[in-house]
Amino acid sequence: MALIQTILFYLTSTAFFFGPTFRLNLFSISVPIFDLLLSLYIFSSLILKPKISNKYVIIFVIWNFISYLINLKSYGFLYQNFFYLFKLTNLCLLLFIPINITKKQKKYFLTILFANILFGFIQYFFWPDLTNYKYFGWDPHLNRLTSTFIDPTFTALIYLLILIFYFFINPNIFTLSLIYLAISLTYSRSTLLALLISSLYFSIKKNKNIKIFLKTIILITITIMFLPNSVGEGTNLKRTSTIMAKIENYKQAFEVIKQKPLIGHGYNNLVSIKKTNNLYHDHSLSGFDSSLLTITSTSGIIGLILFLVTFTKYFSNLTIIEKTAIISILVHSLFANSLLYSWVIFSYSILFNTKNRK
Fold this sequence. Notes:
globular; about 350 residues
């Protein structure tokens, strides 16, 4: 079984590089191959009987299945919705239960990450116009680095996790500069804010001063001043249209929550709700622009409380490195569905969640 797990790790890491565009049609739904391999990888890890110290994660997962079953009569059984529920289970297990990997495996994943960054530069300079992707259900992006993830916001967060990792492990100025340049070219304001807040946390907790935080402010200020303002509103860091769009998104989330505040609509019947109301493009149907709002709308206040209890217990046992990384994800998840994005959680788990690993 250990050999199978190793093979699945390398296959999953390789599929990671290609992002969500590398897909397979199953039961009339389009599923990222990465998610399929990740599910098999997590299942193979569970067979090895890892120690589950945080029992609340099991309760949270069980509640989501209960909420889904309660709402089954209202929404019916759809393969796509059930796939998202299964995916949520995988992400929870991946986030809260460490998986053993070797140094060689971790090195391979780092190689995949850097290959993705290099491809991101190629995409930015030679293929900057992705507006045609709107016909395939993706948000159009112009003159922004997205790499293979076709979304600069999530791409930037993944790169931020790499930046934090190397800042702690091997603070080589060339490596850090390369990664930060890639982050900058995504024009992701939520990621810059996540960097700012996580640096503040680290400055206070680790050094007991705010020197690193002040340096981060200066760096971000210089970035905003000198980043090229190319054609397309996405490269305008002072843009307000996306702010208004997110406010509208949050309003829609609260309207959905008000309908079933206690138990939610079931994870992830948002797909059915949004298709009915025609709120979003196909690839934005699975959540709102906030992970906590997505969790509350699907599993209700009960689900939100269970998640927060699970997360609080998990956070209290983390190291300063892991806490800094997870705070960056939390801040980012206020503006994007980052906590429920497979590529983000897989990156965090492999880079930071190293307890009980070989």
